[in-house]
Amino acid sequence: MEMNIKFPVIDLSKLNGEERDQTMALIDDACQNWGFFELVNHGLPYDLMDNIERMTKEHYKKHMEQKFKEMLRSKGLDTLETEVEDVDWESTFYLRHLPQSNLYDIPDMSNEYRLAMKDFGKRLEILAEELLDLLCENLGLEKGYLKKVFHGTTGPTFATKLSNYPPCPKPEMIKGLRAHTDAGGLILLFQDDKVSGLQLLKDGDWVDVPPLKHSIVINLGDQLEVITNGKYKSVVHRVMTQKEGNRMSIASFYNPGSDAEISPATSLVGKDSKYPSFVFDDYMKLYAGLKFQPKEPRFEAMKNAEAAADLNPVAAVETF
Predict the structure, then answer these.
(1) Is pLDDT of 4 > 80?
(2) Which fold is adopted by the domain 9-277?
(3) What pLDDT digit, counting tens, does each position of 146-158 carry?
């Protein structure tokens, strides 16, 4: 069942006025009850966003579309006679911003496109860190706490996944992106404002994330659920295919550094911790093979690894 209920849209400019308390409460409610919210008046220049949308769609048409069609043929997906559950109907490439950029290693990007994405990435990095401090304020954590946890010894990891979801002749047979939660920290999405498809699971029902022009959709990853001891949640989401329209998605992932030590914040634990402590890179190794499965067994596996390490650190390292 798919529900049409009011998705949380937050005007970030209201943090600077008389409605600050109300706006902070909306963010807190969205983090607790949705795991998602949509930002407007976020400070990112609209002309930059428009240029990036144009260049991303041009790049797909010129350099990615034919490769996508070839992939469909190679996997027998050009006919879609039966339902497909192990492949996604998407065309993607990745940019890494932190700790070291690969922007100039990506083939076929124009210099204008590279410079725009470099600017956009830096602005999103700043926005992500501002949002983490807002979350700290709502959680009663000291300012900078989440940034410090994410930092590890070499700083956070920050990357962008640029995706196109082309028209699909039989949307009922395949998903654009299968249902999952995100492994990392804070995700900032610039999505197509004309072609929809992103849905989240709320109270057992699929809810559309509305495509609003010039908005940035925020969602929380598994690490924030762990650090907040479950007060804030990562939420299952998916992308539906559409018969018409090519949906653009630019998702930027502000994640902990690979050696960051993740654990529930002491002030949020209370009597006991619901979640394990672990090194972020260890979680990512586990996630790589279990992305499209429920998150709870991942948390349990990390708990078991933590218990094994307490008993026999050497054996745990060798067998993890």
Answers:
(1) no
(2) Jelly Rolls (2.60.120)
(3) 999 999 999 999 9
